[in-house]
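Data deposition worksheet. Section B asks for the primary sequence of the deposited chain exactly as it was used as input, without tags or linkers unless they were present during the calculation. Section C holds the resulting structure in token form. Section D is free text for depositor observations; keep each observation to a single sentence. Incomplete worksheets are returned to the depositor.
Section A, Depositor: J.P.
Section B:
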Amino acid sequence: MKKNGFPFLIVLFLVSACTPTVALQAPDKPIEINLNVNIEHHIKVEIDKDVQASIDKNKDIF
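Section C:
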């Protein structure tokens, strides 16, 4: 009976020695994110012909 228990103890010892560990550690330097963003805006304004005519007639209003 002692012969059957000895290999079991060896296997148990080997399996317990291989336990994985996970370590979380904050980085020494801050995280730096560089974003090169180019933003362009195109604005289109349309005025009706009669409104444009009124503006042209009464330039001193604006």
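Section D:
The helical segments are 2-17, 49-57.
The two ends are 107 Å apart (CA to CA).
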